[in-house]
Structures are given as C-alpha cells and as structure tokens.
Write a structure and sequence with these properties.
about 400 residues; mainly beta; 7-stranded mixed sheet; 6-stranded mixed sheet; 21 strands; about 10% helix; elongated
C-alpha cells in the first residue's frame, strides 16, 4: 500500500487570486510493515507506481434551462477542447464540465519505494488570469481542484483532489504607468549604489493589491433623495460605492427633510445572478410560437440574500445602517455564461395617517399610537461593487489530503 498526502504550502489558507502561483507539496509514502506482517507476506516488499501527474482543473456545473424546456447539465458555450486536456478528464468523476485545465506536470515515472521510504515532490502552477473565480450560485457553479493522479501497472487510474478557492483580479490594466507603488516614487531620488542588489519590478499581483487598497479606501459620498408619489421620504448617504470582502457597508438615512412618514425600513445585501441570453440553447424542435414566447420571457436570474438590517424608524430624524460583507461570498465578476453583481435592496414602509403627526403631550410626555394605520411599501435597489481582498486575510483551513493506493 502507498499513501499519497498533499498539502498546500500557504499556511492556513487555500485561497488564491487569479494569476497567483499555487504550490503544493505531494508526498508518496510506503508505510513500514510490522515484523509479523513482513514474515507472513509472500509478495515483493517493494511498492511500484508507473507514473504520477498533477494539474489544476476549473469545473463548471450549470443547470440552465434552455428554451426547449430541458435543463442542461452544462452550457453549450463551454469549449470542451480545453487546453491541457488529457485522457484523465474522461475518467473524472466530479460533477460538471472541465472549463479549463493547466498542462499536466509529470511528477515521476516508475517509482519504487521500500517499506518506510517516502519521496516528496513540489507542484507549482500559475493560475490563469482569464478563468472565472470560485462561485457556487443557484444556476451556475465554478470550482477548482488540484488533481494528483497515479497508476499502478495493470490497475486503474486513481486520483486525489485538493480543493482551492480562486478570487478574481480587480479589473485594471496593470501596465498603466499611473499606477505606482509607494516605494517606486523614491527610487529615482535615492543615490545609486553598485553594491546593492537591484529590486525586482513589482508583479501583476502586487499592482492589483495596491490598486485594490487604493480604490476601496477612497471615500466618495453619494446622496440619494428618496421619494414616492406622495412626497419625500428622506435622504440616503452612501459613503463609497466600492467595497472589498470583509468590509462593512455603512450608510446614513435622514428623515428630517421628508414629508411622508417612514414607519420602518429594511436593507438587504443581495447577490444578483444573471444568465446571459446567448448562453441559452436554441430549441432543437419547432414548437408552437406561443410556447416559445412564454419560455423565452421567463426570468433568467436569481437573487440570493445575505446580511440584513431592519429597524422601526417611526419618530426618528436620523439613523444609520451597517451591513457586513461576508468573506465567503464571491465578488462581482462576469463571464460568457453569467454575470454576478451586488446591490442593496431597500424596503420602506411609509404612511400618511394624520394621527402620526400628533404632537406629544408636554405634561404627561405620552403619545397614544393609533390602532390602525394605512401603509405603503416602497422598494428601491442600489447597485454596489464588491472587489476581492488579499487572500491572506481570508482564513480557510487547507488541511492535509490523503489517498491510499492498495
């Protein structure tokens, strides 16, 4: 028996940005047998593996319903002739279609291990920049696996899968000269020393993280006047429109300028998953025109709720809302199949009852609330942009993965 263990080099995190280098230490061990088992064994004590390879796969699992009314396993926009595809893909038992795979790297050929002996191999691979991030939506799912495959002579191929999470890069042009790191501005002014080692130019990942820090730290308050057909409800202030994972969305509401009473409000952070029209398959058979018209007009998007703020604001002149962005969600991104974006979903419950405007009795400091009030609900959606954060700030245990080959 041979044990295969794999462990990611990055401590306490299995999260990477697109374009980062993934490092995984793979160990092949032949466990040492007891003296009794060795004396009773008639087989060769040496264990032999024919070959072993490692590569990174990006999978897409989709349940999009086409116009003919049949739910497809994957979209027809996925190219099956992906780069780096091998015969190993045919024996893959994971759900979904292989959207992209890296070129397989051969770890060894014809490995022989005696009892108690082990061999270690380092697997390094750069994630593609053009692949989608890890996303587990309602209709579309993207996920990544490091596949370590090996085979005995005359036996079937066995594989060990190591899951990783991939975040998208911020949509910037890293070659833009206006984006400079803090240290670069002082290099030209410093005296030249021929004995000092020259600093390496920053990588695309360093540029992206620097840009991400700058754009999410920039405050640009936006004010929105909220009103309906009966008058003004209030004014909402959002301090910045761009956030990153783990931040808090903070906003204030001012009801002092309103002419319509706001009884209560709720704000929900929502993820909007929109499937593109070109990703839907055309009907294979010619059905009735009415059926095609009804099915083509069906919604092709799903809404998922996350954090929520609810407050009864009757009698308040000002209030604030704080919505934390979870670290496990996927930032805004777009592919040929789906668009994922974020928004704040507001629900204002307003009333125009005259009894709500009654002043409080100054002697008793009491106010008798009406038993019944007529209310109206107003809905407002405000788009926000969510960017990723540095992977080291997302704690996700990588652990150690084990596969026994008998």
């Amino acid at each position: 028996m041979i044990e295969i263990t794999a462990k990611l080099i990055r401590d306490q995190s299995a999260v990477f940005l697109c374009g980062e280098v993934v490092e995984c230490l793979i160990t092949f061990t032949n466990p040492k047998l007891s003296e009794y088992a060795t004396s009773q064994s008639n087989n060769d004590i040496l264990e032999n593996l024919a070959w072993a390879t490692a590569q990174i796969h990006c999978y897409c699992n989709s349940t999009i319903q086409d116009r003919s009314g049949v739910a497809g396993e994957t979209s027809n926009t996925i190219n099956k002739n992906v780069s780096g595809s091998t015969s190993l893909n045919a024996s893959n038992q994971l759900k979904g279609e292989v959207l992209k795979s890296s070129d397989p790297k051969i770890l060894f050929c014809d490995l022989r291990l005696s009892p108690g002996e082990f061999r270690q191999f380092m697997f390094r691979e750069t994630l593609s920049v053009n692949t989608p991030p890890t996303y587990r939506g309602v209709m579309v799912k993207y996920y990544y696996k490091i596949t370590v495959a090996t085979q005995r002579v005359g036996s079937t191929v066995q594989a060990l899968y190591i899951p990783i999470r991939v975040l998208p890069l911020p949509p910037i042009n890293c070659s833009d000269e206006t984006i400079t790191l803090n240290d670069e501005s002082n290099e030209d002014l410093a005296p030249n020393n021929p004995f000092l080692e020259k600093k390496k130019s920053p990588s695309k990942i360093e540029y992206a993280l620097h840009y991400l820090q700058n754009i999410t730290a920039r405050r640009r308050p936006n004010f929105y006047l909220i009103s309906n057909k009966r008058g003004k409800v209030g004014r909402f202030c959002l301090f910045k429109p761009i956030y990153k994972l783990g931040e808090d969305i903070v906003g204030t509401l001012d009801f002092s300028c309103g002419t319509v009473k706001c009884v209560q409000l709720s704000v929900t952070l929502q993820c909007e998953e929109i499937v593109k029209k070109k990703a839907l398959k055309s009907p294979e058979t010619n059905g009735s025109s009415n059926l095609e018209k009804d099915q083509s007009s069906s919604p092709t998007g799903r809404i998922t709720n996350f954090t929520k703020h609810h407050e009864v604001c009757l009698g308040l002149l000002q209030t604030q809302m704080i919505l934390p962005i979870p670290l496990y969600v996927t930032p805004s991104f777009e592919t040929d199949l789906v668009t994922v974006r974020w928004r704040l979903h507001f629900q204002f419950v307003t009333s125009t009852n005259d009894e709500l405007n009654t002043n409080i009795n100054t002697e008793t400091l009491e106010w008798q609330a009406p038993t019944d009030i007529s209310i109206e609900t107003m809905i407002w959606n405000l788009p926000v942009t969510i960017y990723p954060t540095a992977p080291v700030q997302i704690p996700q245990a990588s652990g150690q993965f084990l596969l026994n080959i008998k």
